Amino acid sequence: MYAYIKGTIMEITEDNLVLEAGQIGYNIKISARTANALEGIGASVKIYTYTLVREDTFGLYGFLTRDDLEIFKKLITVNGIGPKGGLAILSVMSADELIFAIAAGDAKAISKAPGVGARTAERVILDLKGKISLEDTLTKNAAVPADMHIGSDAGAEKNEAVEALTALGYSATDALRAVRQVVTSEDDSVEDILKAALKYLY
């Protein structure tokens, strides 16, 4: 119904925003991350919205970026993840971080969200791993996971570096992100990539 609403912040709580636009105050459900990112009462903000209409419910859900909105819309298609669960996940991780976690099969990272157990987190990974569109959901600075075709001659070496980092105890999500930050050439070995990735992690 609404693509976005641009207006003045009138109230903010951990999970709700009252945004005044055109002399109308909109109650918009938000994640804790969104609440923390808002400037404060009286500030002007543009909120991308998702409208939920059911027999007993009419609600607005708001996001600061299109990426968060798009990943939210994918999350609520997963059995057991309703709008409340979607916001809970986006309260503990950004859209990019969630994409990394899904690509890496990192259920532990997703299950950090309140009310989201290990089984539900695994279901998110299973249902969404093949549905994530990098073009639609990754921001310009987001990294492309190694198992999603890095697209360089060093792709195999980067995959090995990711495996080495996970063997050292880093989460698959952090390993993927760190290795993608490394600028490589054809002459770089796995050891070279690993050393550079470790510097990023530290």
- State the low-pLDDT regions, or none: 133-153
Helix vs. strand class? alpha+beta
Percent helix among the residues?
40-55%
Physical arrangement of strands within the biggest beta sheet: 1-2-3-5-4
Strand content: 15-25%
Number of strands: 5
**Coarse morphology:** elongated
Please trace the helix and strand order, writing H or E for each element.
Answer: EEEHEEHHHHHHHHH
Helical stretch tally: 10
Query: Main sheet, how many strands, which sense, barrel?
Result: 5 strands, mixed, barrel
Which whole number gives the mean pLDDT? Answer: 83
CA-atom Rg in angstroms: 19 Å
Cα(first) to Cα(last) distance is 45 Å
In words, what does this structure look like?
With 202 residues, the protein is α+β, with helices and mostly antiparallel strands. The protein has ten helices and five strands, in the order βββαββααααααααα. It has helices spanning 32-37, 66-75, 83-92, 95-104, 107-110, 118-128, 134-137, 155-167, 172-181, 190-201, and strands at 4-12, 16-21, 24-29, 44-54, 57-63. A five-stranded mixed beta barrel has the order 1-2-3-5-4. It is elongated, with a radius of gyration of 19 Å. The N and C termini lie far apart (45 Å). 32% of the residues are buried.
Question: Brief overview, please?
Answer:
It is built from ten helices and five strands.
Defining traits:
five-stranded mixed β-barrel, 19% strand, 202 residues, alpha+beta, 5 strands
Write the layout of secondary structure elements.
Blueprint: E1 4-12, E2 16-21, E3 24-29, H1 32-37, E4 44-54, E5 57-63, H2 66-75, H3 83-92, H4 95-104, H5 107-110, H6 118-128, H7 134-137, H8 155-167, H9 172-181, H10 190-201
Parallel strand pairs: 3-5
Antiparallel strand pairs: 1-2, 1-4, 2-3, 4-5
Helix pairs in contact: 2-3, 2-4, 4-9, 8-9, 8-10, 9-10
